Amino acid sequence: MNNKRLSISICIFIISILKMGAQTLNEICEIGLPVIIINTVNYEEPTCEFVTSPEGATGESITNATKVPCSITIRLHGEILYESGLYKADTSGATIKLRGNTSTKLRAKPYKLKLEKKADLLLRDDDDKYKDKEFLLLLAYNNFLRTHIGFTLNEIIDMPYKPEFKPVNVFINNKYRGLYYLTESVKRNKDCRINVDKKTGYIFEYDAYWWNEDYYIDTEFSNKKMKFTLKYPDTNDITEEQKTYIEQWLKEMQNAVINEQSEDYLCLDTCARWILAQDFLGISDGAGSNLFFAKANNTSESKAYPATLWDFDCICRNENEWSSAHKGDYFFKYLFDNDKNSSFITAYCKEWIKFVDNQVTEKLIQAIKEYADSDEGKAFEKSYNLTSSSYNINIPTWSITEQTKIYEEWFTTRKEWMDNTINDLYPEIIDMLQDESKTYNISFRSPFYKDNNDSNYNAYDILGKKVPSTHKGIKIINRRKVIIQE
User: Fold this and answer.
1) Beta strand pairing status for 305-306 and 459-460?
2) At which of 137, 154, 185 does a domain end?
3) How far apart, in whole angstroms, are the C-alpha atoms of residue 94 and residue 81?
């Protein structure tokens, strides 16, 4: 009798949990963000083992990450937007595995999804160009709006590859796992990701976690904690001929950087834009800041370039300091250290002028504000707080409006610090660029002078005599030569 009652009690408990789970799923679907529902075969959870770097290297990472077969459904409100179907190799369904390094130890886990049949999980238009098999679920928990800010800056400054992303709520095996960013991965796709030649192109990373890869290429740089690893071609598919080429090319490229001939191997303007973005974001990532290079093919005309900004967990950290990529013992150290290597520093200053003239700071702040006021921004805030609650994180209620104010103040101050610092560090180059910068109107926002309303704003003629701001002709404004025609 007792056993029967116990069985009945267990059944009632299970039914109540199932009802609660269904109700919770329906409620979360109504928040306003897409909901990704992942069910694995036999409810198996992805697992991994943790490994520590060998002596002389750095970091912790994962190994033996299991690929678990699963199905994927995407819902918004009551509508099903996508269904992968049940797992069937090369036909339908997908696999899910853990990804990342130290982030995998967090309560919420980052994942990699691989579809058996190409699709666009970001649900853009029906154009086939967006279809791919690989997508990522990046952590939003404890990330605030950092990933949103970083990927938005990618777009504003027009990096070669601008990964698409979308905040989503995630269920795995009927359990709410919280708020994530669904995004594309860094990989070759000639139509919508990184376009390098299928047979002769390369995507490689300046990588602190090289020691956890099957194949890596040593560096000539002084920081031996970093080496190069390949993202394309896959190390399982690479030929000996391809290995020979990329190893020799990387050796030549590094020697060129060290010996002040970097423009022969690198697209300096894109390199400058990448590190300028690192500096502006104030990234303190000590492991190389996820520097992905692309090289279109193996011809001598093909130069390498940083493909995209990536990994924004450590932004807004270095107040009144350069980013770790700029000041650390990393790849670009040699470009900044060499006094004779003016070609890169000139590119860096020129990119900063474009950065200010195009009002990047203002555009980024405006984008953050608009997002906070949008329906998606409000749904993000609600989902963020629900995630904290579901993981029993005892923190105050998170406000997207308050976060927006913090970032507005940080980036406004950051722009002013960088403007003053760059002008002070490289006055001769700035002067040269100013001489080449054609004609300025006094109302144009230039990095070389302040607003008319600023009490520090002064204008002088070329003889050093103070003149009114309406004075036409050649003037010296904030120590810079400016031509005023109106």
Assistant:
1) unpaired
2) 185
3) 16
278 and 250, same domain (yes or no) = yes
The rounded Cα 6 to chain-centroid distance in angstroms is: 53
| 3-class DSSP state of 203 | strand
Tokens of 423: 């002008």
38 plus 127 within the same structural domain: yes
pLDDT in tens, 438-455: 444 332 233 332 333 333
**pLDDT per residue as tens digits for the range 128-185:** 899 999 999 999 977 889 999 999 999 999 999 999 999 999 999 999 999 999 999 9
Q: Whole-model pTM? A: 0.83
461 vs 319: CA distance, rounded Å: 36
Asked whether residue 1 is domain-assigned, the answer is no
431 & 455 share domain: no
Number of domains comprising the chain = 3
Query: Would strands 132-139 and 111-119 be described as parallel, antiparallel, or unpaired?
Result: antiparallel
Same domain? 224 vs 316: yes
Q: Is residue 444 part of a domain?
A: no
Give the CB-side neighbour count of residue 105, counting CA atoms within 13 A. Answer: 9
Q: 354 with 245, same domain?
A: yes
Does residue 291 lie in a domain region?
Answer: yes
Q: How far is CA 382 from CA 29, 108, 233, 451, in A?
A: 12, 17, 41, 40
CA distance 240 to 361: 46
Please check whether residues 76 and 154 belong to one and the same domain.
yes
Beta bridge partners of 68: 96
* CA pair distance 311, 149, nearest whole angstrom: 11
Q: Which domain holds residue 475?
A: 449-486
Strands (E), 196-300: 202-207, 216-217, 227-232, 291-295
- Residues 115 and 131 sit within 8 Å (Cβ to Cβ): no
- DSSP state string for 91-117: TB-EEEEE--SGGGGSSS--EEEEEEE
**417 lies in the same domain as 456:** no
Of 343, 46, 31, give the one whose Cα is nearest residue 168.
31
Instruction: State how far the Cα of 287 lies from the Cα of 270, in Å rounded to an integer.
Output: 21
Q: Scanning the structure block, which residue is given the tokens 């920081």?
A: 223
Q: Is residue 466 part of a domain?
A: yes
Residues 34, 78: contact at Cβ < 8 Å? no
Residue type, 368: I
